[in-house]
Amino acid sequence: MSATTALVVGDSASQAVRSAIRAAKACVGAGKIDLLLIGKGANSGAASASKWNGVSTVYYAEGETPCTAESATPVIRERVSAKDYRYVIATANSFGKNVLPRLAGVLGVSALSDIIEVVESNVFVRPIYAGNALATVKSNDEVKVLTVRPTAFEPIEDSSEGLAEIVKVQIPADGVQSRWLGQEATENTRPDLTTADVVIAGGRGLKNKDNFKMLEEMADELGGAVGATRAAVDSGFVPNDMQVGQTGKVVAPQLYIGIGLSGAIQHLAGMKDSKTIVAINKDADAPIFQIADYGLVADLFEAVPELLQKIKEL
Ligand code: FAD
Question: Electron transfer flavoprotein alpha/beta-subunit N-terminal domain location, by residue (predicted)?
Answer without folding.
Answer: 6-184
